[in-house]
Design goal:
The protein is mainly β. The chain has no helices and 5 strands. It comes from Saliphagus infecundisoli. Pfam families: DUF7837. InterPro entries: DUF7837 (IPR057159). This is Phage terminase large subunit family protein.
């Protein structure tokens, strides 16, 4: 499933996830830090364009 904000772009970039606080779509360009957890799971923290908080996209 791809979540989009109201702005159209010339190409579709899949969202990294959504903000758990305001449900805004989080684009990969918003990632602040990405790291690998045990077992090879990759997770990230990103800045939400909606509420401007640092969040872990879901």
């Amino acid at each position: 499933m791809m979540v989009k904000m109201g702005v159209m772009s010339t190409h579709d970039t899949p969202a990294l996830g959504i903000c758990p606080e305001c449900a805004a779509a989080i684009a990969p360009a918003r990632v602040l830090i990405e790291y690998e957890r045990g077992g090879g799971e990759v997770t990230a923290f990103a800045e939400c364009p909606g509420c401007r908080e640092v969040i872990r996209p879901v």
